[in-house]
Amino acid sequence: MALDVDDLAEFLNVTFKDTEVDGQVVPDPRRRELAEHLEAAVATVEARTGPVWQREVSYTVRSINGLLVLPATHLTEIAMVLGPAGEVGMDTFIPGHVDKHSGLIYLPAGNPEGPYVVTVTAGEENPPADLVRAVLYVAGHLWESQRGRSQRPGVLGEDRTGGAPAWAIPYTAQTLMEPYLLPLDARSA
């Protein structure tokens, strides 16, 4: 089950107050704002860990000496590998040359170097609780820093309330993501 805006609102102790104008319900504008923060948080976590929730994803990667390094691990299925010479038949792969756990694919001999589009199913139907929590912490941090709620004593003279001068992933979220981080070369693919 993916997170939704109501899950994030509960995590942040935010209560929505929809209003009524001319007989029509106008949603609390914070609902849209939280949805944007949640979407950005999922993208932030997935850029470091690969997909959190299970779905089909296509990646364009370059082969290096017959090796494709995908920016995702724990693949459940490889649906298609399309290279410069066309589709690479899944039946041509040597057993053991597709490592779904690490996201590595060793191409069969004779496939040219170049860009490949690989379509896979990645992520978890029920992702680990610590990754879900990391998404919530990142979304919460975005919410707090954008709304200017953080107290920063001594900045700009007297104690003032203001947004952070720069954005960084909260340490707690980073720690929760640690066991799932992709290798650096896969993250830059």
Report on the structure:
With 189 residues, the chain is α+β, with helices and mostly antiparallel strands. The chain folds into 2 domains: 5-52 and 127-181; 55-122, no CATH class. It is built from 5 helices and 11 strands. The strands form 4 sheets. The protein has a 4-stranded antiparallel β-sheet with strand order 3-9-5-6, with no helix packed on it. Strand 7 (98-99) and strand 8 (104-106) form a beta hairpin. The radius of gyration is 21 Å and the shape is elongated. The model is unreliable at 150-160 (pLDDT under 50).
Would you kindly provide a brief summary of this structure?
This protein has 189 residues and is of the alpha+beta class.
User: What is the count of DSSP helices, taking H or I runs of 4+ residues?
Assistant: 5
What is the distance, rounded to the nearest whole angstrom, between the alpha carbons of the first and last residues?
Answer: 28 Å
Strand content: 15-25%
**What is the number of strand segments?**
11
- Structural class of the helix and strand makeup? alpha+beta
Read across the widest sheet, the strand sequence of neighbours is 3-9-5-6
The biggest sheet, with number of strands, parallel, antiparallel or mixed sense and barrel status, is:
4 strands, antiparallel
Order of helices and strands: HEEHEEEEEEEHEEHH
Gyration radius, rounded = 21 Å
Low-confidence stretches: 150-160
Helix content: 25-40%
Overall, the morphology is elongated
Supply the number of structural domains.
2
Mean pLDDT: 85
